[in-house]
Amino acid sequence: MTPFAPQLLALVALGGAIGSIARYAVGILAIRWLGAGFPWGTMAVNVAGSAIIGLLGGAIASGLPMSNEMRLLAITGFLGGFTTFSSFSLDTGTLFLRSPVLAAGYVALTLAGGLLAFALTFEAMRRSYSP
């Protein structure tokens, strides 16, 4: 099967649609719960996406069988639609115009949170799964 086979593209599209809807929902809930003064929703999905890819990557690295189709659906599709690095860039630029210190804090918290979430979940899955 070629990488651009219609079945594979459909899996990426389906995962992307679900991920995008989930991202939208998190953004709306973050604004309702925490206000619009800080991009909590974008930060939350980037950290959560890092944790999810840590879980999946750790499991795959430990030998958990995952079909190419499932990887396309979950990682390329869902996580591609769910995480928001382009939105992160826009939010950072907007915050920078208001306050360079706030923008720097946002970048530091998002990167540290995402990397920590990835490292913890990757290692947890790597250690807990044994084929």
UniProtKB/TrEMBL annotation:
This enzyme catalyses:
fluoride(in) = fluoride(out)
List UniProt keywords, sorted A-Z: Cell inner membrane, Cell membrane, Ion channel, Ion transport, Membrane, Metal-binding, Sodium, Transmembrane, Transmembrane helix, Transport
Read off the Pfam families from this record: CRCB
Question: Record-annotated residues binding Na(+)?
Answer: G80, T83
Compartments, record wording: Cell membrane
Q: Which residues cross the membrane?
A: 43-65, 72-90, 102-122
Membrane-related topology note:
Multi-pass membrane protein
Q: Which InterPro entries match?
A: FluC (IPR003691)
Summarizing activity control, the record says: Na(+) is not transported, but it plays an essential structural role and its presence is essential for fluoride channel function.
Q: Does the keyword Thylakoid apply?
A: no
User: Of which family is this protein a member?
Assistant: Belongs to the fluoride channel Fluc/FEX (TC 1.A.43) family.
Biological role: Fluoride-specific ion channel. Important for reducing fluoride concentration in the cell, thus reducing its toxicity.
Please give the PANTHER family that the UniProt record associates with this protein: FLUORIDE EXPORT PROTEIN 1-RELATED
Give the protein's recorded name: Fluoride-specific ion channel FluC
Which species is listed as the source? Roseomonas elaeocarpi
